[in-house]
Amino acid sequence: MIWRNWIRPYVYTVLLIGVVFQLWCLAWVGLYGVGLAPYTAFMKSEQARLMTTQGQFMLERDWVDYGQISDNLKRAVITSEDAGFVEHDGVDWTAIEAAQKRNEKAGKAVAGGSTISMQLTKNLFLSSNKSYLRKAEEIAMTYAMETILPKDKILEIYLNSVEWGEGVFGAEAAAQHYFKTSAAKLTPQQAAKLAVMLPAPKKYDANRKSPYLAKRANVVLRRMRAAQIPDDEGV
Fold first, then answer.
1. Bridge partners of 163?
2. Is 22 exposed, middle or buried (0-12, 13-18, 19+ CB in 10 A)?
């Protein structure tokens, strides 16, 4: 009984910190919804790493509005990353169950079953470690974000903040980095190639002629016409 009384204040403190962190994150989501361009937790960690390893300080990033991003890229990314993006409420439980089976088979966390919304939540606020605790936190925050922001805003923030290479973040920087064009002018072929780079952008940045990359891009290219994307009304 004594040990319970001793440990109770520490448990309450941890819970309080968790609640405050959640509220802090939701406040930032609200600011992103009204136009503030995020500098994500992942960007910060990558900038620190680049400073340590290469002495590089500035990241390649340039925010563009949803309407300035080619529909080709929107369709390609949804096709490659999250085909049910428009329909689900932020979490695809079928994908999570499939990922859990893969993890159990591998004996470690090798897949997460994350949707675009969940990936955005992780990039904005959380660490990149693969644990069930972090996944639970990611799911809870994703549901909250989907309540606050429309789908088009979620996709806009994601496409402007996701990593696309060594120090390259967002659609505009990626379009310039790989094709010397703007995000608005990406062709279907270019968009498909960028989309399939997302699971391992640094790897493909250094190996742009990868046979797998080309093969996978062709698959996405064939399927992306059927992809449903949110319009600028949030639908």
1. 169
2. middle
Pairing of strands 163-165, 168-169: antiparallel
Average pLDDT over residues 150-177: 96
Residue recorded with tokens 């309080």: 16
Distances (CA, A) of 32 to 28, 66, 161: 6, 13, 12
SS (H, E, C) the chain: CHHHHHHHHHHHHHHHHHHHHHHHHHHHHHHHHCCCCCCCHHHHHHHHHHHHHCCCCCCECCCCCHHHCCHHHHHHHHHHHCCCCCCCCCCCHHHHHHHHHHHHHHCCCCCCCCCHHHHHHHHHHCCCCCCHHHHHHHHHHHHHHHHHCCHHHHHHHHHHHCEEECCEECHHHHHHHHHCCCHHHCCHHHHHHHHHHCCCHHHHHCCCCCHHHHHHHHHHHHHHHHCCCCCCCCC
Tokens of 174: 């990626």
Residue 216 and residue 206: Cα distance in Å, rounded?
17
Tokens 């590089």 correspond to: 56
- pLDDT 10s digits, 1-25: 555 566 666 565 666 666 777 777 7
Which has more pLDDT, 231 or 124? 124
